[in-house]
Specification:
The chain has 426 residues and is an alpha/beta fold. A hairpin with a 2-residue loop joins strand 6 (92-93) and strand 7. It is globular.
Length: 426
Amino acid sequence: MKKKEMIAMLLAGGQGSRLGVLTNSKAKPAASFGGKYRIIDFPMSNCINSGVDTVGVLTQYQPLLLNRHIGIGIPWDLDRRNGGVTILAPHVKGEQGEWYSGTANAIYQNIDFIDAYNPEYVLILSGDHIYKMDYSKMLDFHKQKHCDATIAVREVPLDEAGRFGIMNTKDDDSIYEFEEKPKQPKSNLASMGIYIFTWSKLREALIADNRIHTDSDFGKHIIPRMLDENQIMFAYRFNDYWKDVGTIESYWVANMDLIKTLPDFNLYDDFWKIYTDSEHQPPQYTGPQSDVRASLLAEGCEVYGAVYNSVLGPEVYIDEGAVVRDSIIMEGGRIGKNSRVNRAIIDEGSSIGSNVVIGEGENIPNELKPKIYNTGITVLAEATHIPDGVNIGKNCVIVGTTTQTDYENGRLVSGGSIIHEPEVIL
């Protein structure tokens, strides 16, 4: 194969357990975002916009939808003979196969893939962040500083720094220490999980660390190891929009950021387009009595009711008299006549009957998973059905086809759950 200056390795095998039922049947990077996109579209688009034309996508958890979405990389111009996109699932080597057991272990298991391109540099990315970044500028920085490793960082409020991996740097931004979620942080430079390594240096570190840690991780093992060896490591400051949509609340907020008059994150930038695998669909239609304000509507939506401050995926149907506020309705969702939906996330292919109320009541955390569902957002899993005339509170979780008998006195109080698929991971 033709030698590449830099290739990207995109870690996309995570479950995203803090997104609850939204990732029960798909990997977090495959979750819908912004109506027509999936989360992985953002780092994939960043690659091709940055001139990185060789991308290995490392999958593991529930990969079917993600694999189908990526295909051979046509939407991102990554269907190439030399390079392009390659799906890298765990595979058998020698007498046995093994799962990826850490971020660095996943790269270690694919050393042969990287060696085939003989790159000078390797870009390591997470597949579950929303942002636009020119990786070529980060590479220029890496070269100028003669780095062995460059780590992208963002400044965070110091009182929140304890939730992140923190890079402590000298005045010239050279890194002298890494602290994972420090109780008393010395710095507010949070790692973004975006790294450029000189491949020869990373390759040595991966092989050496694998002898010690079978669950080798960049934050826990590789970065501290390289620091201990006095390798040249710099922090690359990134000041634009970046969101880790790792929780129900952050996922909801990032979608809502898109519908502001001056959005914090602009999807309409011709200079830095976000590409996706999108089938040709009919145009949107709004009926004569409809009212749509400050919302994103994807292709094929039909709106006969009212939609305010919401994001609608492809082919969503809002019936007459229905009112949707501050909500995310994913592809194929249907909201029946005179129903009211407030502050909800409704996954793909779900339907809500007529005269249903969702998202009203006290803000009581969910009874089964209070740490995941606690900010007033009610979540319906993929292909869930709600019958006519029921009232559902806040922080509720509903999975599967439900009937009137599932709702005591026609209600599911705030914090309640109805799970008709026992294998579902809340």
